From TrEMBL:
<keyword id="KW-0238">DNA-binding</keyword>
<comment type="similarity">
    <text>Belongs to the HSF family.</text>
</comment>
<keyword id="KW-0346">Stress response</keyword>
<feature type="domain" description="HSF-type DNA-binding">
    <location>
        <begin position="8"/>
        <end position="103"/>
    </location>
</feature>
<dbReference type="InterPro" id="IPR036390">
    <property type="entry name" value="WH_DNA-bd_sf"/>
</dbReference>
<dbReference type="InterPro" id="IPR000232">
    <property type="entry name" value="HSF_DNA-bd"/>
</dbReference>
<dbReference type="Pfam" id="PF00447">
    <property type="entry name" value="HSF_DNA-bind"/>
</dbReference>
<protein>
    <submittedName>
        <fullName>Heat stress transcription factor A-4a-like</fullName>
    </submittedName>
</protein>
<keyword id="KW-0539">Nucleus</keyword>
<dbReference type="InterPro" id="IPR036388">
    <property type="entry name" value="WH-like_DNA-bd_sf"/>
</dbReference>
Length: 126
């Protein structure tokens, strides 16, 4: 299936969208109920198939960190499955991930600038 990904979208976003969209991966990972998240149904099979390797990660913990970095958040559920989503990660609308990417970039830039400002303030107080 061809996807209309916007130019400049990180490879990470495209790979996760394609993986979740692929019906062959549904027993392992698929769209969430509201079509703006994905659920990892079988973490053992996810690990066994080395799916994190497709995302240039060595471990699942690194994959989770990358999910946060790229704008995904963990959706808390009582049943124990792993669900991650974003309001701009929407089934059938891959072009919305561009907005998701921009928001994540701004958030990380603001955190970086705050840390740098704190370091500078600390330096000036010495």
């Amino acid at each position: 299936m061809a996807h209309n990904f916007p130019k400049g979208l990180p490879v990470f976003h495209m790979r996760i969208y394609k993986l979740v969209e692929d019906p062959e991966s549904d027993p392992i990972i698929s769209w969430g109920k509201d079509n703006n998240s994905f659920v990892i149904w079988n973490l053992e099979e996810f690990d066994r198939r080395n799916i994190v390797d497709k995302f240039d990660c060595n471990r699942f913990s690194q994959f989770r960190a990358d999910l946060r970095h790229y704008g995904f958040r963990r959706i808390k559920k009582g049943s124990g499955e792993l669900e991650y989503g974003n309001e701009d990660f929407v089934r059938g609308h891959p072009e919305r991930m561009k907005t998701m990417m921009i928001k994540a970039f701004r958030k990380h830039r603001a955190k970086f600038e705050a840390k740098e400002a704190a370091k500078e303030m600390q330096r000036l107080q010495i």
